[in-house]
Write a structure and sequence with these properties.
- The protein is mainly β and 234 residues long.
- It folds into two domains: 2-53, no CATH class; 63-232, Fumarylacetoacetase-like, C-terminal domain (Fumarylacetoacetate hydrolase, domain 2).
- It has helices at residues 30-35, 182-190; strands spanning 2-4, 15-18, 21-25, 42-47, 51-53, 63-68, 71-75, 80-81, 85-88, 104-114, 120-130, 144-152, 162-167, 170-176, 200-202, 209-212, 215-221, 226-232.
- The strands form four sheets. Strands 6, 7, 8, 10, 11, 12, 15 and 16 form an eight-stranded mixed beta sheet that branches. A five-stranded mixed beta sheet has the order 9-18-17-13-14, with no helix packed on it. Strands 2-3-4 form a three-stranded antiparallel beta sheet, with no helix packed on it.
- The protein is globular, with a radius of gyration of 18 Å.
- The model has no long low-confidence stretch (mean pLDDT 91).
Length: 234
């Protein structure tokens, strides 16, 4: 999803990145693009440097976060935010006359996006933000980063992806994807239910980055785009 810099929109348009350009596709959402068979009429093209990339999935029906292919927990779809979003440090719960803000932890992950017929259609970067000062489960209920692009399953093997995390430009984490059987995870998510286009199946976390105050954080799936967030106090 994107919008031209000179034409901001909350929802944006579906687009296909082709080199240094974005092609506007005639689909309302990425979910409807998948439901339509993965093809749509093409509209205008825009230079990539002249657009703002948004969260690729709007209002995901369900978010499942896995620690391994045998266990997952549901997360809050309303907490999903896109690239360049501000992540607000929640109040730590101290008395009102001593209000302070939690330091944050970010756990980089890879998210699989469900397409037509309940299949895994593509992958994108995912940032699970946590506030360790808050009680479970509210410690991870306020911000889930997603984007900036979805790379289709035929173009990306998530097992081969390397992640790099930079805080204010300084690299804090770099490493390969954790071992995860995406087929087994998908099948567990689909067991006794129906997976809808836009559902997110999120793989295990890379090494977390802890103790974050106000800063800029970049999570890069090396070769496949950078998800950037800005941590603010309020």
């Amino acid at each position: 999803m994107f919008h031209p810099l000179d034409h901001p929109m909350e929802r944006g348009w579906v687009g296909r990145i082709d080199g240094d350009r974005v092609v506007h596709l005639a689909a309302q959402t990425l979910q409807s693009f998948f439901t339509g068979g993965g093809s749509a009429r093409e509209h205008a093209q825009y230079p990539l440097v002249e657009v703002c990339l948004l969260a690729p999935v709007l209002h995901s029906p369900a978010v499942r976060i896995f620690e391994n292919q045998d266990t997952f927990a549901f997360a809050n779809p309303a907490a999903v935010v896109g690239p360049r979003a501000e992540v607000v440090r929640p109040a730590s719960g101290v008395p009102a006359d001593r209000v302070s803000r939690s330091s944050l932890t970010v756990v980089p992950r890879i998210a699989g996006v469900i397409g037509a017929s309940g299949s895994l259609a593509g992958f994108t970067a995912f940032a699970e933000w946590r506030a360790p000062d808050l009680p479970v489960p509210k410690d991870r209920d306020f911000a889930l980063g997603l984007g900036p692009i979805v790379v289709t399953s035929d173009e990306l093997d998530p097992a081969q992806v390397e992640v790099a995390v930079r805080v204010d430009g300084r690299e804090r984490v770099r490493g390969p994807a954790p071992g995860f059987d995406w087929r087994a995870g998908h099948d567990l998510a689909a067991e006794h239910t129906v997976l809808r286009p836009g559902d997110l199946v999120v793989g295990p976390g890379f090494d977390p980055v802890e103790g974050l105050g106000e800063c800029a954080v970049q999570i890069e799936l090396v070769g496949f785009g950078v998800l950037e967030h800005v941590v603010v106090g309020d």
